[in-house]
Amino acid sequence: MSRMTELLKGAVELNLRYTSTLLHLSKDYLKDANVVLTRGPEPAPPSDGENPAPAPRPPLLVVGRAGETGNAAFAINNPSDREMNVHLLVQGELAEPAVNVDPARLTLKAGDSAIVRILARIDDKLPVDRDHVGSVVAPGLTSQGVPFIVRRLPDATATAGGDAPNPAPRKSRAARSSPG
């Protein structure tokens, strides 16, 4: 019976070591993936409570008039020593196909970087001057995404006062007062 107990203890210890190693590898992978999708390594949280938390990443502004395609871009990099496959998705008020990313899938070798574009088709159904919030995320890699705002601009013929865009030039005071 003691031989059976020793074998069982050995199997449990081996299983625990395997699980521990797997958890450490997963933690390192997620940390590296988070660095890829953010501007850099996350700073250590303040230990004394006096330093403020880092500001959130400002959203990218994707704007255009009806009939145009608005766009913005952000960099993604892989500072790790392993190749990473990244699949990007759009979430938010306006999702695919109205808003998409190019490229949506990419492979980054160790140390490589790439530019990802956010493309939004602006149509006349989109309200003018209303912000539509969204985010580009990589499911499974990080909980943080790249925030963006899509906004339709007023048409080129519209102005704030409702006047024509290029009114006729006005005569100077001297020209108006001279007889003629």
Describe this structure in words.
This protein has one domain: Immunoglobulins (Immunoglobulin-like). It contains two helices and nine strands, in the order H-E-E-E-E-E-E-E-E-E-H.
Summarize the structure in short.
Helices cover 23% and strands 29% of the residues. The chain is of the alpha+beta class and 180 residues long. It has a single domain (1-41, 58-157), classed as Immunoglobulin-like.
Name some characteristics of this structure:
single chain, 180 residues, alpha+beta, Immunoglobulin-like, three-stranded antiparallel sheet, elongated, disordered C terminus
> How many H/I helical runs?
2
Profile the largest sheet: 4 strands, mixed
Structural class: alpha+beta
What percent strand? 25-35%
Proportion of helical residues: 10-25%
Counting DSSP E segments of at least 2 residues, the number of strands comes to 9
So, CATH architecture? Sandwich
CATH class: Mainly Beta
CATH homologous superfamily assignment: Immunoglobulins
- Please provide the ordered H/E string of secondary-structure elements: HEEEEEEEEEH
Radius of gyration: 28 Å
